[in-house]
Amino acid sequence: MKLFLNSTLFLCPLFVGLSSGLAQQQPAPAPSSQGPGGQQTTQPPPLPPKVPEVLRQDEGDASLDGLAWLPVGQPKFNKGQATTSTVASNATLQGRAKLAWGGNLRIPAGAHSAFRLSYFDTHATGNFIAGTDLTLWSSGYNAGDYISTTYRLRSFGLSYDFLTWPYPARNRRFRLKTLWQFQYASVKSTFDAPLSANPPSPGMGSRSIYLPGLGLGVTEYLSNNFRVEALGSGFAIPGHAGLANGEADIAYKFGRLELRVGGKIFYFKSSPQADFYMKGLLAGGFAGLRFYMH
Fold it and tell me: CA 20 to 30 Å from 156, out of 43, 80, 116, 133?
Protein backbone atom coordinates (compact mmCIF):
# COMPACT_ATOMS: atom_id res chain seq x y z
CA MET A 1 0.00 0.00 0.00
CA LYS A 2 2.80 2.33 0.88
CA LEU A 3 4.52 1.49 -2.40
CA PHE A 4 1.37 2.35 -4.37
CA LEU A 5 1.04 5.79 -2.72
CA ASN A 6 4.68 6.61 -3.41
CA SER A 7 4.28 5.64 -7.09
CA THR A 8 1.16 7.77 -7.42
CA LEU A 9 2.88 10.80 -5.91
CA PHE A 10 5.77 10.35 -8.38
CA LEU A 11 3.63 9.86 -11.53
CA CYS A 12 1.16 12.74 -11.00
CA PRO A 13 3.67 15.58 -11.53
CA LEU A 14 5.07 13.72 -14.56
CA PHE A 15 1.61 13.37 -16.13
CA VAL A 16 0.81 17.04 -15.50
CA GLY A 17 4.08 18.11 -17.18
CA LEU A 18 3.49 15.96 -20.26
CA SER A 19 -0.05 17.29 -20.66
CA SER A 20 1.20 20.89 -20.48
CA GLY A 21 3.89 20.23 -23.14
CA LEU A 22 1.44 18.64 -25.57
CA ALA A 23 -0.92 21.56 -25.16
CA GLN A 24 1.85 24.02 -26.05
CA GLN A 25 2.74 22.06 -29.23
CA GLN A 26 -0.78 22.16 -30.71
CA PRO A 27 -1.12 24.84 -33.52
CA ALA A 28 -3.26 27.85 -32.84
CA PRO A 29 -6.70 27.57 -34.45
CA ALA A 30 -7.35 29.72 -37.53
CA PRO A 31 -9.47 32.79 -36.85
CA SER A 32 -13.10 32.05 -37.36
CA SER A 33 -16.39 33.75 -37.27
CA GLN A 34 -19.94 32.64 -36.98
CA GLY A 35 -21.81 32.17 -40.24
CA PRO A 36 -25.54 31.73 -40.78
CA GLY A 37 -27.08 29.37 -38.25
CA GLY A 38 -24.27 29.89 -35.77
CA GLN A 39 -21.79 27.70 -37.71
CA GLN A 40 -18.09 28.48 -37.40
CA THR A 41 -16.42 29.58 -40.72
CA THR A 42 -12.67 29.90 -41.36
CA GLN A 43 -11.45 33.28 -42.71
CA PRO A 44 -9.32 33.21 -45.91
CA PRO A 45 -5.72 34.42 -45.73
CA PRO A 46 -5.10 38.10 -46.56
CA LEU A 47 -4.64 39.07 -50.25
CA PRO A 48 -1.10 39.80 -51.50
CA PRO A 49 -0.22 43.49 -51.90
CA LYS A 50 -1.44 45.04 -55.20
CA VAL A 51 1.23 45.87 -57.78
CA PRO A 52 0.98 49.63 -58.45
CA GLU A 53 0.38 51.10 -61.91
CA VAL A 54 3.61 52.60 -63.25
CA LEU A 55 3.31 55.60 -65.58
CA ARG A 56 6.13 55.78 -68.11
CA GLN A 57 7.83 58.98 -69.27
CA ASP A 58 5.23 59.91 -71.93
CA GLU A 59 2.10 58.84 -70.02
CA GLY A 60 -0.28 60.79 -67.83
CA ASP A 61 1.05 64.18 -68.95
CA ALA A 62 -0.05 66.61 -71.65
CA SER A 63 2.60 67.42 -74.24
CA LEU A 64 3.18 69.52 -77.35
CA ASP A 65 5.81 68.80 -79.98
CA GLY A 66 7.03 70.16 -83.28
CA LEU A 67 8.63 68.10 -86.03
CA ALA A 68 10.50 68.65 -89.27
CA TRP A 69 9.89 65.99 -91.93
CA LEU A 70 11.77 65.69 -95.23
CA PRO A 71 9.45 63.65 -97.51
CA VAL A 72 10.41 62.10 -100.83
CA GLY A 73 7.84 61.27 -103.51
CA GLN A 74 5.97 62.66 -106.53
CA PRO A 75 2.17 62.63 -106.46
CA LYS A 76 0.18 61.80 -109.61
CA PHE A 77 -2.61 63.71 -111.34
CA ASN A 78 -5.15 62.08 -113.65
CA LYS A 79 -8.71 62.33 -114.90
CA GLY A 80 -11.49 60.49 -113.14
CA GLN A 81 -14.67 58.78 -114.19
CA ALA A 82 -16.75 61.96 -114.19
CA THR A 83 -14.63 63.78 -116.80
CA THR A 84 -15.96 64.45 -120.28
CA SER A 85 -12.53 65.10 -121.82
CA THR A 86 -11.08 62.59 -124.28
CA VAL A 87 -7.58 64.10 -124.01
CA ALA A 88 -5.01 62.48 -121.71
CA SER A 89 -4.59 63.98 -118.24
CA ASN A 90 -1.96 61.84 -116.58
CA ALA A 91 0.84 63.98 -115.17
CA THR A 92 3.39 63.70 -112.39
CA LEU A 93 3.68 66.60 -109.98
CA GLN A 94 7.37 67.44 -110.16
CA GLY A 95 9.93 68.68 -107.67
CA ARG A 96 11.17 67.49 -104.31
CA ALA A 97 8.84 68.29 -101.44
CA LYS A 98 10.05 71.09 -99.21
CA LEU A 99 10.73 70.49 -95.54
CA ALA A 100 7.38 69.70 -93.99
CA TRP A 101 6.57 71.27 -90.64
CA GLY A 102 4.11 69.66 -88.29
CA GLY A 103 3.34 68.81 -84.71
CA ASN A 104 1.29 66.87 -82.20
CA LEU A 105 -0.78 67.83 -79.19
CA ARG A 106 -1.32 64.98 -76.71
CA ILE A 107 -3.86 65.09 -73.86
CA PRO A 108 -4.13 62.24 -71.33
CA ALA A 109 -7.33 60.17 -71.48
CA GLY A 110 -6.78 57.87 -68.53
CA ALA A 111 -3.59 56.47 -67.02
CA HIS A 112 -2.06 55.08 -70.24
CA SER A 113 -4.33 56.31 -73.07
CA ALA A 114 -4.39 59.69 -74.79
CA PHE A 115 -6.07 61.93 -77.34
CA ARG A 116 -3.65 63.09 -80.05
CA LEU A 117 -4.12 65.94 -82.55
CA SER A 118 -1.57 65.93 -85.40
CA TYR A 119 -0.80 68.21 -88.37
CA PHE A 120 1.73 68.71 -91.16
CA ASP A 121 2.10 70.90 -94.27
CA THR A 122 4.39 70.41 -97.29
CA HIS A 123 4.68 71.66 -100.88
CA ALA A 124 6.85 71.27 -103.99
CA THR A 125 7.49 72.99 -107.33
CA GLY A 126 8.94 71.50 -110.52
CA ASN A 127 8.50 71.27 -114.29
CA PHE A 128 8.32 68.84 -117.20
CA ILE A 129 7.89 68.87 -120.99
CA ALA A 130 4.56 67.48 -122.18
CA GLY A 131 5.01 64.39 -124.34
CA THR A 132 1.43 64.60 -125.64
CA ASP A 133 -1.56 66.92 -125.54
CA LEU A 134 -2.90 67.21 -121.99
CA THR A 135 -5.97 68.48 -120.18
CA LEU A 136 -5.00 69.51 -116.66
CA TRP A 137 -7.92 70.80 -114.59
CA SER A 138 -9.67 73.34 -116.83
CA SER A 139 -6.73 74.09 -119.16
CA GLY A 140 -5.37 72.37 -122.26
CA TYR A 141 -1.69 72.05 -123.14
CA ASN A 142 0.07 70.97 -126.34
CA ALA A 143 2.72 68.36 -126.79
CA GLY A 144 6.14 69.94 -126.27
CA ASP A 145 4.89 72.62 -123.86
CA TYR A 146 7.15 73.42 -120.92
CA ILE A 147 4.79 72.96 -117.97
CA SER A 148 5.52 74.03 -114.41
CA THR A 149 3.78 72.24 -111.55
CA THR A 150 3.09 73.21 -107.96
CA TYR A 151 1.28 71.31 -105.24
CA ARG A 152 0.57 71.75 -101.55
CA LEU A 153 -0.47 68.99 -99.16
CA ARG A 154 -1.93 69.49 -95.69
CA SER A 155 -3.06 66.86 -93.21
CA PHE A 156 -4.95 66.92 -89.92
CA GLY A 157 -5.65 63.94 -87.69
CA LEU A 158 -7.47 63.30 -84.41
CA SER A 159 -6.66 60.00 -82.71
CA TYR A 160 -7.73 58.22 -79.53
CA ASP A 161 -4.75 56.03 -78.59
CA PHE A 162 -6.26 53.38 -76.31
CA LEU A 163 -4.14 50.99 -74.25
CA THR A 164 -5.30 47.51 -75.28
CA TRP A 165 -2.60 45.17 -73.91
CA PRO A 166 -1.34 44.49 -71.32
CA TYR A 167 -4.16 45.56 -69.06
CA PRO A 168 -3.60 46.43 -66.32
CA ALA A 169 -0.16 47.56 -67.42
CA ARG A 170 1.30 47.74 -63.90
CA ASN A 171 5.10 47.82 -64.21
CA ARG A 172 5.41 46.22 -67.67
CA ARG A 173 7.48 47.97 -70.31
CA PHE A 174 5.53 46.99 -73.43
CA ARG A 175 2.38 48.73 -74.70
CA LEU A 176 -0.01 47.78 -77.50
CA LYS A 177 -2.54 50.49 -78.36
CA THR A 178 -5.45 50.59 -80.77
CA LEU A 179 -5.85 53.85 -82.68
CA TRP A 180 -9.35 55.22 -83.37
CA GLN A 181 -9.08 58.20 -85.70
CA PHE A 182 -10.61 60.86 -87.87
CA GLN A 183 -8.38 61.97 -90.78
CA TYR A 184 -8.46 64.94 -93.14
CA ALA A 185 -6.15 65.81 -96.04
CA SER A 186 -6.24 68.63 -98.57
CA VAL A 187 -4.12 68.70 -101.74
CA LYS A 188 -4.00 71.59 -104.21
CA SER A 189 -2.17 71.63 -107.54
CA THR A 190 -1.44 74.20 -110.24
CA PHE A 191 -0.20 73.75 -113.83
CA ASP A 192 1.16 76.58 -116.00
CA ALA A 193 2.93 76.95 -119.36
CA PRO A 194 4.55 80.40 -119.15
CA LEU A 195 6.92 79.85 -122.12
CA SER A 196 4.23 78.85 -124.64
CA ALA A 197 3.55 81.19 -127.60
CA ASN A 198 -0.11 81.36 -126.59
CA PRO A 199 -0.14 80.27 -122.94
CA PRO A 200 -3.50 79.15 -121.55
CA SER A 201 -4.78 80.20 -118.18
CA PRO A 202 -3.15 78.21 -115.38
CA GLY A 203 -5.03 75.04 -114.55
CA MET A 204 -5.64 74.77 -110.82
CA GLY A 205 -7.84 72.89 -108.41
CA SER A 206 -7.93 71.07 -105.09
CA ARG A 207 -9.33 67.95 -103.49
CA SER A 208 -10.25 67.26 -99.87
CA ILE A 209 -10.39 63.85 -98.23
CA TYR A 210 -12.34 63.05 -95.03
CA LEU A 211 -12.10 59.53 -93.64
CA PRO A 212 -12.10 57.59 -90.36
CA GLY A 213 -8.98 55.67 -89.48
CA LEU A 214 -8.07 52.46 -87.67
CA GLY A 215 -4.61 51.39 -86.58
CA LEU A 216 -2.18 49.96 -84.06
CA GLY A 217 0.68 51.42 -82.07
CA VAL A 218 3.44 49.64 -80.12
CA THR A 219 5.90 51.04 -77.59
CA GLU A 220 8.79 49.43 -75.74
CA TYR A 221 10.30 51.31 -72.79
CA LEU A 222 14.00 50.44 -72.68
CA SER A 223 14.72 52.59 -69.64
CA ASN A 224 13.15 55.37 -67.58
CA ASN A 225 14.08 57.93 -70.25
CA PHE A 226 14.48 55.93 -73.47
CA ARG A 227 11.81 54.25 -75.60
CA VAL A 228 11.11 53.06 -79.16
CA GLU A 229 7.68 53.19 -80.77
CA ALA A 230 5.87 52.60 -84.05
CA LEU A 231 2.33 53.26 -85.25
CA GLY A 232 0.33 52.82 -88.41
CA SER A 233 -3.25 53.56 -89.41
CA GLY A 234 -5.43 54.10 -92.44
CA PHE A 235 -8.74 53.63 -94.16
CA ALA A 236 -9.80 53.25 -97.78
CA ILE A 237 -13.05 52.76 -99.69
CA PRO A 238 -12.49 50.59 -102.80
CA GLY A 239 -12.90 52.71 -105.91
CA HIS A 240 -13.02 55.89 -103.83
CA ALA A 241 -10.69 57.80 -101.50
CA GLY A 242 -8.02 56.48 -99.16
CA LEU A 243 -5.62 57.73 -96.49
CA ALA A 244 -2.84 55.98 -94.58
CA ASN A 245 0.07 57.06 -92.44
CA GLY A 246 2.73 55.52 -90.26
CA GLU A 247 5.84 56.43 -88.32
CA ALA A 248 8.53 54.83 -86.19
CA ASP A 249 10.97 56.61 -83.91
CA ILE A 250 13.30 56.47 -80.96
CA ALA A 251 12.80 59.00 -78.18
CA TYR A 252 14.97 60.21 -75.30
CA LYS A 253 13.52 62.35 -72.52
CA PHE A 254 15.56 64.77 -70.43
CA GLY A 255 13.66 66.91 -67.97
CA ARG A 256 10.52 68.24 -69.63
CA LEU A 257 11.96 67.87 -73.14
CA GLU A 258 12.09 64.81 -75.37
CA LEU A 259 14.07 64.38 -78.58
CA ARG A 260 12.50 62.16 -81.27
CA VAL A 261 14.19 60.85 -84.44
CA GLY A 262 12.63 58.44 -86.93
CA GLY A 263 10.85 57.92 -90.23
CA LYS A 264 7.37 58.82 -91.46
CA ILE A 265 5.19 57.72 -94.40
CA PHE A 266 1.95 59.20 -95.76
CA TYR A 267 -0.38 57.98 -98.53
CA PHE A 268 -3.37 59.80 -99.99
CA LYS A 269 -5.83 59.28 -102.82
CA SER A 270 -8.80 61.46 -103.64
CA SER A 271 -11.85 59.81 -105.17
CA PRO A 272 -11.45 58.77 -108.84
CA GLN A 273 -15.21 59.11 -109.16
CA ALA A 274 -14.67 62.87 -109.67
CA ASP A 275 -13.58 64.51 -112.93
CA PHE A 276 -9.94 64.69 -111.75
CA TYR A 277 -8.14 63.12 -108.83
CA MET A 278 -4.69 62.99 -107.22
CA LYS A 279 -2.78 60.36 -105.31
CA GLY A 280 0.68 60.05 -103.84
CA LEU A 281 3.03 58.35 -101.40
CA LEU A 282 5.52 60.46 -99.43
CA ALA A 283 8.16 59.01 -97.12
CA GLY A 284 11.24 60.29 -95.33
CA GLY A 285 13.03 60.92 -92.07
CA PHE A 286 11.96 63.38 -89.38
CA ALA A 287 13.21 64.90 -86.15
CA GLY A 288 11.07 66.42 -83.42
CA LEU A 289 11.24 68.03 -79.99
CA ARG A 290 8.45 67.41 -77.47
CA PHE A 291 7.64 69.54 -74.42
CA TYR A 292 5.83 68.03 -71.42
CA MET A 293 3.60 70.33 -69.38
CA HIS A 294 4.51 68.86 -65.96
Answer: 80
